[in-house]
Specification:
It is built from ten helices and twelve strands. α1 packs across α9, α2 packs parallel to α3 and α3 packs parallel to α5. The chain is an alpha/beta fold. The radius of gyration is 19 Å and the shape is globular. The longest helix has 14 residues. The protein has one domain: Alpha-Beta Barrel (TIM Barrel), CATH 3.20.20. Strands 7-8-9-6-5-4-3-2-1-10-11-12 form a twelve-stranded mixed beta sheet. Helices cover 29% and strands 17% of the residues. It binds S-adenosylmethionine and iron/sulfur cluster (SF4). S-adenosylmethionine binds next to β3, β5 and α10.
Length: 325
């Protein structure tokens, strides 16, 4: 079965946040004091999350990314992932994590059927990493990535590039791909929490690529189906590759194939749309048909494109930890 929106885009990717809690406080994701936590009763049970995943896959979703908050802090997440991996029709089960708990969990995640990991890592310098994450330990994340490699899970390393904070490390992240089989992706900073003067933090994909071009020769790689919006490149002879994700300067709305659900059951068809649908009432009454009807309505009303750019953002501020990125 194929799910299409009213602009003819095939929707086959669901991002599922399993918690709003996090063991970090990244500057670009949430304010220093954190964000108000959802109450236990607001968060969907694994049973309810599974029901949505099952309904979505039966309607044509082929890829699920489990995210958060930090998904690995929710108890029982490995068992939940193992259950998701049994869904007939689900081709890709992947996870996004900050990597802090990965060292101890990588083997179990792989056994549970997680095929690939995205690890968010914005600096290779312990002090800068601490500053961005408001106290995270870089060594713990690096040990987590090494454990994921040993467990046989391919790793994408996602770096949010911010002018004056970590942009001096762009070339170091490219160098990582020479010896490691990672796919490093440079992500344009997005004004989700709308910090003052957020525009000064933005470095466009074009500028990032320009800086890399001065130092390295590389070739473009073909787009892989369901691999997401990154444009990817490889230095000849390198083990890994690098890519650019440009939500601000180069909207990929025309090729957007995704919907998102928060851990409290709010579904969004566009990260920057203020429109969301609450599935919780249907989930609490186990009304699978109503869940499917709502999912279809959400997809049909998916906006054509968002309105943010490198200089303007016309959405309500939100913490990415509540939506899952
Ligand atoms: N805690 C996990 C992590 O950090 O990977 C998963 C959730 S996090 C909200 C998902 C992704 O959103 C991370 O890669 C993070 O870097 C990205 N993100 C959060 N706020 C962002 C922002 N303002 N601009 C760009 N990316 C952002
Ligand atoms: Fe937590 Fe991920 Fe947000 Fe950082 S980006 S605060 S790790 S949810």
């Amino acid at each position: 079965m194929e799910l299409n929106d009213s602009y003819g885009r095939k929707i086959n990717y669901l991002r599922l946040a399993v918690t709003d809690r996090c063991n970090l406080r990244c500057q670009y994701c949430m304010p220093a004091e954190g964000v108000p936590k959802l109450s236990h009763s607001d968060i969907l049970s694994y049973e309810e999350l599974f029901l949505v995943a099952q309904a979505a896959v039966s309607m044509g979703i082929e890829k699920i990314r489990v995210t958060g908050g930090e998904p690995l802090v929710r108890k029982g997440v490995v068992e939940f992932l193992a259950r998701l991996s049994t869904l007939t029709g689900l081709k890709h089960l992947v996870l996004t994590t900050n990597g802090l708990l990965l060292e101890e969990m990588a083997e179990d995640l792989s056994r549970a059927g997680v095929q690939r990991l995205n690890v968010s890592l914005d600096s290779l310098q312990p002090a800068t990493f601490k500053q961005i994450t408001r106290n995270g330990e870089l060594a713990q994340v690096l040990a987590g990535i090494a454990a994921a490699e040993r467990a046989g899970m391919p790793v994408k390393v996602n770096m949010v590039v911010m002018r004056g904070i970590n942009d001096a490390e762009i070339l170091d992240f490219v160098r990582l791909t020479l010896d490691k089989p990672y796919s490093v992706r440079f992500i344009e900073y997005m004004p989700t929490i709308k910090e003052e003067n957020w525009q000064s933090l933005v470095i466009t994909g074009e500028e990032i690529l320009g800086r890399i071009e001065k130092e390295f020769e590389f070739k473009g790689l073909d787009q892989v189906e369901l691999a997401g919006p990154a444009k990817n490149y490889k230095i000849e002879g390198a083990q890994g590759s690098f890519g650019l994700i440009t939500p601000l300067s180069g909207h990929f709305c025309g090729a957007c194939n995704r919907i998102r659900m928060t851990s409290s059951g709010k579904v969004k068809s566009c990260l920057f749309s203020d429109q969301e649908y609450d599935l919780k009432p249907f989930l609490r009454s186990k009304d699978v048909i109503a869940v499917k009807v709502a999912l279809r309505r959400i997809i049909v009303t998916k906006p054509e494109k968002h309105q943010i750019s490198c200089s303007e953002a016309e959405h309500q501020a939100f913490a990415m930890s509540s939506i899952g990125g």
